[in-house]
């Protein structure tokens, strides 16, 4: 195993983690501020992927596609929030789970109806299609590096938004006491819509970015949604910092597990069964990580009391 | 407006009479649909114990359903290929004998529920939902990446398994078997609901602090209920696999968990016959709307959304004009 290969896998893990962060940041904010568990978050990711692919194919510009994904997903978020989600804040988690599960069915089948069952293809933009030379002789795809940079920029932006702006103050106030901030004259309905749209835009952004390295298809958001839940459980519900650390932890564990475990088993058993056992175990590794965190910290690494 | 017990009796009778009439008229497909309703309703009855009585919102019950399915698939697969499951230290062979398959399905799904429940019940609220979901997905991905039993393609079983005294290949006989099991489990679940244990379980849902104060341990009660609930889902999974003669990771996917939950909710959470009504509505929607449009799940989604937003007591609640199943 060469150093370059190891470093490449490490970067892949970070890239995966950053993408998971974009998903889980929105989920955890929506949960923290509104107390809503949103299964349809993966559908907004899918909306982002499809919009980006459709607009990029029509105009030939990836940047325009990305803008369409951001605004389109945010718009879908606003629409869904006003029509459905708004009625769920005061309901129990069961109603929220079911209503958002219903939204998944509607979004998935609706997208299949509009775009058909076949995956769409989205090409990596021309400038970013080649590899970049990094120190130590590592070659890494420019596009994946761009995802890492974009994701970290979003993380920084979110940090500044939450700690430095008026909106951020309101979001934090909403997390700690909903009634009080409403009593202080903040338009809480508007705040909720904005937070939901922000989460939706982040999910759509993630879907568009990932769409160019994987295929854009129906149900693409669901595996990511469940991983985002794992991230949130590990990081602690409602904590954006927890989401970032949890996402990187999950991304690295998953990628490195798939890379290293088969090799590890190959040191003491024959190759074919080492690959089988290694990859089967690797597919379960993040859930084992989650179980481990739960045993020691049932509220997650950065969670307060729920 | 109709009393709930009368409505329940009516539903039960309809589920019995329609397949019998279909049998007389030679409408085999209707019998298969009714069998499907029985099997899915059984899974719903299982989930209802955790969800309706215990208030545990598990989005991972597909795990137990799928384990039951794989118990059947693995045993029958070894039996049809005449390869023993293991030879050392002692010989274990596959079997096509339903009672043995059911026993294994119930034991294995119960053990899985014990492990998953013991970890998940350390938390509550949204954490519990996400964790049960994640553990369910863990088994799903494991089933996909483990090639010994078909991996992503699943396992096909060529001939339906055997039950002593019955010819299970005859649709009406297999229906009768599933219908009897469903009836027995609904009866047991109604006994459980009003037993000392059932009352304690409902107390943990209604007020955890008070339950603790009278000297009960909510964790233990919930865990036992979770295991019972998982075992019933496991049995339903084994029957469902036998009905389709096919097992695949799809049984373990979280969509299956969502669907089992839909059965319970469409009918009305916590109501004894809710899973049956919900499963019947689901199967009929799939059958009739699926014939009209390939995108029938949009309508399922809209219906579910309407029930959640505007009819909290489910369909039984609408018919009996009573929102709450309890009190």
Radius of gyration of chain A, Cα only, in angstroms?
A: 20 Å
Q: Largest sheet of chain B, if any? A: 2 strands, antiparallel
Number of domains of chain A: 1
Tell me the series of helices and strands of chain A, N- to C-terminal.
HHHHEEHHHHHHH
Overall morphology of chain B: globular
Structural class of chain A: mainly alpha
Cα-atom radius of gyration of chain B? 20 Å
Query: Ranges of chain A with pLDDT <50 over ≥5 residues?
Result: none
Describe this structure in words.
The complex is a heterodimer of chains A (306) and B (327). Chain A has 306 residues and is mainly alpha-helical. Chain A has one domain. Chain A has 11 helices and 2 strands. In chain A, a hairpin with a 3-residue loop joins strand 1 (131-134) and strand 2 (138-141). Chain A is globular. The model of chain A has no long low-confidence stretch (mean pLDDT 87). Chain B has 327 residues and is mainly α. Chain B folds into 2 domains: 49-252, no CATH class; 255-319. Chain B is built from 13 helices and 2 strands, in the order H-H-H-H-H-E-H-H-H-H-E-H-H-H-H. In chain B, helix 3 (62-81) crosses helix 9 and helix 10 (254-267) packs across helix 11 (274-292). The mean pLDDT of chain B is 88. The A-B interface holds A 31, 37, 84, 87, 93-95, 97-99, 101-106, 108-110, 112-113, 222, 226, 229-230, 232-233, 237, 276, 279-280, 282-284, 287, 290-291, 294-295, 298-300, 306 and B 51, 57, 59, 119, 122-127, 129-131, 133-135, 137-138, 141-142, 144-147, 254, 258, 261-262, 265, 269, 295-298, 300-302, 304-305, 308-309, 312. Chain A: GO terms for molecular function: transmembrane transporter activity. Chain A: It is a multi-pass membrane protein. Chain A: Belongs to the binding-protein-dependent transport system permease family. LivHM subfamily. Chain A: InterPro entries: ABC_transp_permease (IPR001851), BCAA_transport_permease (IPR052157). Chain A: Its main location: membrane.
């Amino acid at each position: 195993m060469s150093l370059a290969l190891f470093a490449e896998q490490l970067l892949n893990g970070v890239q995966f983690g950053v993408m998971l962060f974009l998903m889980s940041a929105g989920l955890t904010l929506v949960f923290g501020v509104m107390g809503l568990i949103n299964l349809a978050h993966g559908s907004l990711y899918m909306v982002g992927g499809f919009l980006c692919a459709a607009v990029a194919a029509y105009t030939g510009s990836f940047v325009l596609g990305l803008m369409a994904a951001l605004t389109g997903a945010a718009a879908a978020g606003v629409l869904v929030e006003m029509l459905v989600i708004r009625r769920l804040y005061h309901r129990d988690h069961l109603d929220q789970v079911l209503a958002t599960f219903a939204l998944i069915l509607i979004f998935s089948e609706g997208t299949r109806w509009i775009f058909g069952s076949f995956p769409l293809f989205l090409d990596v933009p021309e400038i970013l299609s080649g590899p970049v030379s990094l120190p130590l002789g590592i070659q890494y795809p420019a596009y994946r590096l761009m995802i890492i940079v974009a994701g970290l920029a979003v993380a920084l932006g979110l940090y500044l938004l939450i700690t430095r702006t008026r909106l951020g103050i309101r979001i934090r106030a909403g997390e700690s006491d909903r009634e009080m901030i409403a009593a202080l004259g903040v338009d809480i309905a508007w705040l909720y819509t904005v937070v939901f749209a922000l989460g939706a835009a982040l999910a759509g952004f993630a879907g568009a970015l990932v769409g160019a390295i994987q295929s854009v298809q129906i149900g693409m958001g669901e595996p990511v949604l469940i991983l985002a839940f794992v991230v949130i459980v590990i990081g602690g519900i409602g904590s954006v910092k927890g989401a970032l650390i949890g996402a990187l932890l999950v991304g690295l564990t998953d990628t490195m597990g798939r890379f290293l475990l088969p090799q590890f088993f190959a040191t003491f058993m024959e190759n074919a069964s080492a690959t089988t056992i290694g990859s089967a175990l690797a597919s379960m590794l993040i859930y084992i990580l989650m179980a481990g965190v739960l045993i020691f910290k049932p509220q997650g690494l950065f969670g307060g009391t729920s | 407006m109709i009393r709930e017990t009368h409505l329940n009796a009516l539903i039960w009778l309809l589920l019995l009479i329609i397949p019998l009439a279909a049998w007389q008229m030679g409408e085999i497909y209707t019998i298969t649909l009714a069998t499907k309703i029985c099997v899915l309703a059984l899974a719903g009855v299982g989930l209802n114990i955790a969800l309706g009585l215990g208030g545990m919102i598990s989005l991972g019950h597909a795990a137990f359903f799928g384990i039951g399915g794989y118990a059947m698939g693995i045993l029958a697969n070894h039996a049809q290929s005449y390869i023993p499951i293991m030879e050392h230290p002692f010989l274990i062979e596959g079997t096509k004998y339903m009672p043995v398959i059911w026993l294994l399905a119930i034991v294995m799904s119960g053990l899985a529920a014990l492990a998953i429940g013991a970890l998940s019940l350390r938390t509550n609220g949204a954490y519990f939902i996400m964790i049960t979901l994640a553990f369910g997905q863990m088994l799903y991905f494991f089933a996909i990446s483990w090639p010994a039993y078909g991996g992503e393609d699943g396992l096909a079983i060529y001939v339906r398994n055997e039950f002593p005294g019955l010819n299970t290949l005859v649709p009406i006989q297999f229906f009768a078997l599933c219908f009897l099991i469903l009836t027995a489990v609904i009866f047991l679940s109604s006994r459980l609901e009003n037993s000392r244990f059932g009352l304690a379980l409902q107390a943990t849902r209604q007020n955890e602090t008070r339950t603790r104060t009278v000297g009960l341990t909510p964790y233990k009660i919930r865990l036992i209920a979770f295991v019972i609930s998982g075992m019933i889902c496991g049995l339903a999974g084994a029957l469902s696999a036998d009905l389709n003669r096919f097992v695949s990771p799809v049984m373990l996917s979280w969509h299956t968990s969502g669907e089992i939950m839909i059965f319970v909710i469409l009918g009305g959470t916590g109501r004894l016959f809710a899973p049956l009504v919900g499963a019947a509505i689901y199967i009929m929607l799939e059958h009739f709307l699926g014939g009209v449009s390939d995108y029938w799940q949009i309508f399922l989604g809209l219906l579910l959304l309407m029930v959640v937003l505007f009819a909290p007591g489910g369909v039984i609640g609408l018919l009996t004009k009573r929102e709450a199943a309890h009190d």
